[in-house]
């Protein structure tokens, strides 16, 4: 089958501010298995430009695929863009199958299938095996009910191409097949690196870059994060094979930078140490950046020299809060003392520490923001990244907020990118929250210690990394203020979070849709389940869901913040 993978342009600040781009790992992860199964596959990365919807549709028409696969790393904020593309493709190519995947569609499949009749299938969860099964079923005209991990409408007739005259009937049911099996052997899923021109993808100061993934999932249960439910189990690739793949990318394609997409690559000390040693033995000058937990850094104090020798240049530490009570409330499993020690250890070994702090977990007052500023200065991280609490429906944090009846002030899903305020702030007006956040960022980034490391650190590579992040920050800071003042459309009396997450986000239809599908469960050997109940309360059913990133795209915080 002739397949086109489409990476929609993303409106998030993290995508638009850097003048460099990272390849969409999730779509490439689908491309490898599809190529190996004998399909003709091409990638259209609409982030370059970014391309308009009309230009994307024109490119799709020129290629004339049998199936168009849509997915993005910033799944929630990328949803409006993906659906606009789907509508345009459907009008231009009525016989092309349109498949949509990612975190947001996985959890909101019923609402999307109701609102977007142009989308034929939603892939729920890890996509590598599911997409190959789906394409095979379409080509061979096999029953779609036998493909685990997909959502589709009853009456959809499988075939190499979609029937041009087919339109979902008003009473069509949404068929939700049981979840696909967990992928245990991550090395068995090849990334389709041949689908990209490596010269186009640079990062961290024009270094040729890729996004790679050593592990999937996270063994921890932080209430604001959905990664544990997404992946169901923490798994890792073979350390030696993974190191060899990175070395090959350097030798054959000139790759210099590896952005680790893992939520927690260091979770297993033995596996992580084996990877570091294997990469060191390859003797390649790679630079690694990624995200990890402060507790893992403290645990690995005796092997941090291996981090540095392997090329680790920066780790983002998800501190989230500088208050022990808040850390306990969100089940972070860390303390202020651990966070401070992790920053000190990274500095001792010449690794840039970036502290991620989240505003909005609790109903902060002015004194809380002042205390946060003082404590961040005491932590003394090299860089900070301030983001806003974003209550995705698949997290216990959102469930708790629904009970508190907090209201949504930002109903535009394209702004749900962690860099825009989503929730009302009862104790401090939202405009003053912005002032506090910008003040905290400015004071932390311009303090003498940070400037001294930026200008006079003895390690040139460290200085270069500091300069790159500082340059990004200098552009992001005024951009966010400008967006708040002149671009963002906020509502003074928005829906409660409960109302919004139950479908209040549905919008942007070109025409009112009369398609009102009913919800049905799968017809496989697994017992019937209610997909609506599954997707709206995933924290109660994480073992029954298979959710992951291969349809969601690429990178991790802070370079491109993904749904979590």
Descriptive account of the structure:
The chain has a domain at 2-183 and 516-544: Response regulator (Rossmann fold). The two termini are 33 Å apart. It is built from 21 helices and 17 strands. Residues 508-562 have low confidence and may be disordered. The chain is globular. 52% of the residues are buried. The strands form three sheets. An eight-stranded mixed β-sheet has the order 2-1-3-4-5-6-7-17, with helices on both faces. The longest helix has 28 residues, at 460-487. It is of the alpha/beta class and 564 residues long.
Provide the fold topology.
Layout: E1 2-7, H1 13-16, H2 25-36, E2 40-45, H3 53-63, E3 67-70, H4 75-92, E4 97-101, H5 103-107, H6 109-115, E5 121-123, H7 128-139, E6 150-153, E7 173-176, E8 202-203, E9 207-212, E10 215-216, H8 227-231, E11 235-236, H9 239-253, E12 257-260, H10 269-282, E13 287-292, H11 294-299, H12 304-310, E14 312-320, H13 324-329, H14 336-348, E15 352-359, H15 366-379, E16 383-388, H16 396-404, H17 430-446, H18 448-456, H19 460-487, H20 497-504, E17 518-521, H21 531-536
Parallel strand pairs: 1-2, 1-3, 3-4, 4-5, 7-17, 9-12, 12-13, 13-14, 14-15, 15-16
Antiparallel strand pairs: 5-6, 6-7, 8-9, 10-11
Helix pairs in contact: 2-7, 3-4, 9-10, 10-12, 15-17, 18-19
């Amino acid at each position: 089958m002739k397949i086109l993978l489409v990476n929609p342009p993303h409106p998030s600040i993290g995508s638009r501010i850097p003048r460099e781009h990272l390849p969409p790992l999730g779509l490439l992860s689908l491309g490898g298995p599809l190529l190996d199964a004998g399909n003709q596959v091409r990638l259209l990365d609409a982030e370059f430009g970014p391309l308009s919807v009309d230009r994307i549709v024109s490119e799709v028409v020129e290629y004339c695929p049998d199936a168009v696969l849509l997915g993005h790393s910033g799944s929630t904020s990328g949803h409006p863009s993906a659906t606009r593309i789907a509508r345009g493709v459907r009008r231009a190519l009525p016989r092309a199958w349109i498949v949509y995947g990612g975190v947001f569609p996985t959890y909101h499949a019923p609402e999307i299938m109701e609102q977007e009749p142009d989308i034929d299938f939603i892939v729920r969860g890890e996509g590598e095996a599911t997409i190959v099964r789906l394409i095979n079923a379409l080509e061979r005209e096999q029953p779609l009910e036998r493909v685990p991990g997909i959502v589709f409408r009853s009456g959809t007739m499988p075939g190499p191409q979609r029937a041009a005259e087919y339109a979902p009937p008003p009473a069509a049911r949404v068929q939700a097949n049981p979840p696909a099996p967990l992928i245990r052997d991550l090395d068995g899923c090849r990334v389709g690196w041949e689908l990209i021109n490596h010269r186009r993808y640079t990062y961290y100061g024009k270094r040729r870059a890729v996004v790679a993934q050593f592990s999937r999932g996270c063994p921890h249960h932080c209430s604001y994060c959905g990664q544990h439910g997404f992946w169901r189990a923490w798994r890792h690739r073979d350390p030696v094979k993974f190191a060899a793949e990175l070395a090959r990318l350097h030798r054959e394609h000139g790759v210099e930078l590896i952005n680790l997409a893992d939520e927690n690559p260091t979770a297993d000390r033995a596996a992580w140490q084996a990877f570091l040693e294997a990469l060191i033995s390859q003797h390649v000058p790679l630079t690694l950046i990624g995200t990890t937990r402060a507790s893992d850094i403290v645990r690995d104090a005796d092997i941090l020299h291996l981090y540095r020798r392997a090329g680790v240049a920066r780790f983002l530490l998800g501190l989230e809060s500088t208050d022990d009570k808040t850390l306990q409330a969100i089940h972070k499993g860390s303390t202020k003392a651990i966070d401070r020690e992790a920053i000190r250890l990274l500095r001792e070994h010449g690794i840039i520490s970036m502290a991620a702090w989240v505003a909005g977990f609790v109903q902060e007052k002015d004194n809380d923001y002042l205390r946060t500023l003082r404590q961040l200065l005491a932590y003394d991280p090299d860089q900070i990244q301030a983001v806003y609490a974003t209550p995705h429906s698949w997290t216990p944090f959102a469930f708790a907020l629904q009970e508190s009846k907090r209201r949504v002030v930002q109903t535009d899903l394209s702004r749900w990118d962690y860099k825009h305020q989503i929730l009302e702030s009862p104790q401090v007006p939202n405009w003053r929250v912005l002032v506090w956040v910008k003040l905290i960022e400015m004071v932390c980034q311009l303090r003498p210690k940070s400037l001294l490391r930026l200008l006079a650190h003895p390690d040139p590579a460290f200085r270069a990394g500091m300069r790159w992040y500082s340059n990004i920050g200098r552009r992001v800071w005024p951009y966010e203020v400008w967006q708040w003042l002149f671009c963002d459309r906020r509502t003074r009396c928005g829906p409660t979070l409960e109302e919004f997450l139950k479908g209040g986000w549905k919008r942007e239809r070109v025409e009112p849709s009369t398609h009102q599908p009913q919800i049905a469960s799968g017809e496989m050997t697994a017992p019937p389940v209610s997909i609506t109940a599954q997707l709206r309360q995933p924290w109660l059913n994480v073992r029954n869901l298979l959710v992951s990133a291969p349809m969601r795209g690429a990178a991790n915080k802070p370079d491109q913040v993904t749904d979590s």
